[in-house]
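## retry 2 of 3
previous attempt timed out at serialization; input unchanged, resubmitting
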Amino acid sequence: MKEKSRTINPFSMDSINPEELLPQQGRVTANDEAVLVIGGHIQHSRFLEEGKIYQIVEPRLVFVMEGHADLCINLQDWHLEKGMLMVLPADTIVDIKKISEETRVVAIIFRKGVELPEESVLTVSPTEADRLLRMIYLVWDFMQVRPVRRTVLRHLLQALVDNVQYIRDTAEKAAADSIPMRMQETFRKFRRLVHRHCVRERSIPFYAGELNMTPHYLSSVIKKASGRSVMYWVNRATVQEAKILLETGGLTGCEIAYRLHFPSASAFSKFFRREVGTTPRKYREECG
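## retry succeeded, writing output
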């Protein structure tokens, strides 16, 4: 039997007529600067379907107003609930696992001139959520003005992003109160390096060298900052890369082992079974 595989689907507003969103997507407005969706029912959209993997083309913010969802964002699993905000820069990979029937979101997709920081998922306080929504409704109002006040709109969009960055910085500072900031920054740099290099590099000395540390010191810092070992994060990222290849590539075990720089298919299978609890073949069959 031919094994099933999934593809990574580019998700760009350039290929979507905003009017197609209207039946299920609540209120929608769009121009050359942005697309704004208020009260979107994403679980009914043909553009974002459960079980599919998408690559975000334009940066976007998505705030959960109701319901819950399980997503994998750039190889990290997230359970989303009401009051949570997703920051999704361009090229973010989103694997949609499950979206509840009652889920509603506010989403703003930036078409020009706005860049978002690295992807993140934030829990927003009720006060900040109210402030964030009032800013979004102000953007909505100015998107209705004709002729379009592009300069004003661009400043509003940038202000919205700056406010999200403030929320994120505040949350990170609160989380870091019990851990030195330098240690937190090292952990963030380490995670970025693992995301970039785990396909080829899976040794503590490599990451220690990239961060100008000894392997022992790096291990100590990562353990204190995250409660997990260096190899936990390296193996976790490697497993997520393997899962994407198993689900999307239609590749053989030998081809995946080669892509991930394992010495053999059996070495890859042994690693995957140790980390996941099942063989690559069984995992692929269950996903299919």
